[in-house]
Design a protein that fits this description.
By secondary structure, the protein is an alpha/beta fold. 30% of the residues lie in helices and 23% in strands. The strands form 4 sheets. An 8-stranded parallel beta sheet has the order 8-11-12-13-14-15-16-17. The longest helix has 18 residues. The two termini are 41 Å apart. The mean pLDDT is 96.
Length: 472
């Protein structure tokens, strides 16, 4: 049975208008005024915005780290994402030296099988780039549709790759049509600073931030940009946390380097003082890069407004405070890195961004959905409201006020990083390929309904990637 969404205000990355939307067989088939509603289910969006479903380009579900595993798996994590207005996630498939890329991808397919309630894709981590990995990459890109490659410049002796690996990955990505992503921190310097802090008896959570200063993020960001320029390739810098790193990206873009930047809601609204909370509460806010001094928030918001940063990911990586985060009591370096962010990503950007005049409504859609769809080979099936697009739609009430709390969130974790924060705006109903996942704030979806997405190559349409409201 077809569905028609009526009485709402449709908002895309470029337009805002009143119209009805007709959905048939999971896709949008008509957009217009007063569409005939014979034999159709009517969805009343009066007083609401109608957004394309959010795309979260940065999640870690069911991921091993620091001797434990993230609390949210592909079922609870995608359910929470849907409650928050996200209809597509791209998760990170971790790899291991000496093992085939295919074996790692197979592991992530097994983790997600019959669990996801919304659509999903994978980024592929690269820890080494030898002849065997080079031979596998075309198959990963062409057959699996995994067209983004992640290189860690931090986490020495765990995830960190050297500059040779990064440079070879950039060259391979240039030739094969993939987008290289980097976690940009100088892992060698961090390793030294962490060991020194512990040797000096500085073991509280705040030292997680103090041993990962902004300079190590800025240096790695600049280094990655330089290598990208040398390779004539393309780069996406994940979870930009500080002004210095954002400035490095802006400088590189001004030189014509094909570089993009992502930030996260935690860096826009939380600051370094949270790691100073007593009774080990600061451990709740240990993730990497760390929270920064509050003045950085103004610079990050400005970078989003002016288009020098283009997307917002959650970096969802949840660990319980009791039983997981407390593994690091007495040694901050053993606190599992990560936080529960996936559910509140969209609402925080709307409340703190649009409602407070920091970004426009169309920019909000671009940052939370459209730009990621374009960069990661999902557009125009995802990331917009247009005829022929998947009916991934969020009906969003811009007036409702609520307080974020672990008592009411849908993540499996035992705390919320934004506990007590007041926000304005909330998803009411969420559809994935035309079917309700959330209806009137109630979950009506089904684990396993989410489909794995094979994505197009980076740069298949350069004009599409760069068009849209990157600046005001």
């Amino acid at each position: 049975m077809k569905k028609i969404i009526k009485n709402g205000t449709v908002v895309t990355a470029t337009d805002t208008y009143r119209a009805d939307i007709c959905i048939e067989n999971g896709v949008i088939t008509q957009i217009g005024g007063k569409l005939p509603d014979v034999d159709a289910e009517i969805i009343d969006a009066k007083g609401c915005y109608v957004f394309p479903g959010g795309i979260d380009p940065h999640t870690h579900l069911d991921m091993p780290f620091g001797g434990t595993v993230t609390k949210d798996d592909f079922e609870s994590g995608t359910m929470a994402a849907a409650f928050g207005g996200t209809t597509t996630i791209i998760d990170f498939c971790l790899t291991t030296k000496g093992k085939t890329l295919k074996s790692s991808v197979d592991t992530w397919h097994a983790k997600s099988k019959d669990k996801a309630v919304i659509d999903y894709g994978f980024h592929l981590q690269i820890v080494e780039m030898n002849n065997e990995k080079l031979a596998e990459l075309p198959k990963m890109i062409e057959e699996e549709g995994i067209t983004s490659l992640k290189v860690f410049m931090a986490y020495k002796n765990q995830f960190q790759a050297d500059d040779e690996t990064l440079f070879k990955t950039l060259i391979a990505a240039r030739d094969l049509g993939a987008l290289v992503m980097v976690h940009a921190e100088n892992g060698d310097v961090i390793d030294y600073l962490v060991k020194k802090a512990i040797a000096d008896g500085n073991t509280d959570p705040i030292y997680h931030a103090l041993t990962r200063p902004p300079e190590v993020e800025a240096e790695a960001t600049g280094r990655a940009a330089t290598l990208t320029e040398l390779a004539n390739s393309q780069l996406y810098v994940v979870h930009v946390s500080c002004a210095e790193a954002a400035w490095k990206i802006a400088e590189a873009r001004s030189k014509g380097i094909d570089i993009w930047g992502e930030t996260c809601p935690q860096y826009l609204v939380l600051d370094q003082t949270y790691l100073e909370k007593p009774n080990f509460e600061g451990a709740k806010y240990v993730w990497s890069p760390p929270l920064r001094e509050k003045w950085n928030q103004t610079e990050l918001w400005n970078a989003l407004k002016t288009g020098q940063l283009q997307t917002i990911g959650s970096d969802q990586c949840s660990f319980d405070f009791v039983g997981q985060k407390d593994l690091g009591k007495g040694d901050f370096s053993k606190i599992p890195n990560g936080g529960p962010i996936i559910e509140d990503r969209v609402s925080i950007l709307f409340s703190e961004g649009v409602k407070k005049g920091r970004i426009s409504l169309n920019q909000f859609v671009d940052i939370t959905s459209t730009r990621s769809a374009k960069l990661f080979g999902l557009y125009p099936k995802k990331g917009t409201i247009a005829i022929g697009a998947d009916a991934d739609i969020v009906i969003f009430d811009p007036t409702v006020e609520r307080v974020i709390s672990a008592e009411s969130h849908h993540m499996a974790v035992d705390y919320n990083a934004f506990e007590g924060m007041k926000v304005t705006g909330e998803p009411v109903s969420v559809l994935s390929r035309g079917e309700f996942v959330i209806r009137e704030k109630q979950f009506v979806g089904k684990p396993g309904a989410g489909q794995f997405l094979k994505r197009a190559k980076y740069g298949a349409d350069k004009q599409t990637i760069h068009e849209g409201p990157l600046t005001v």
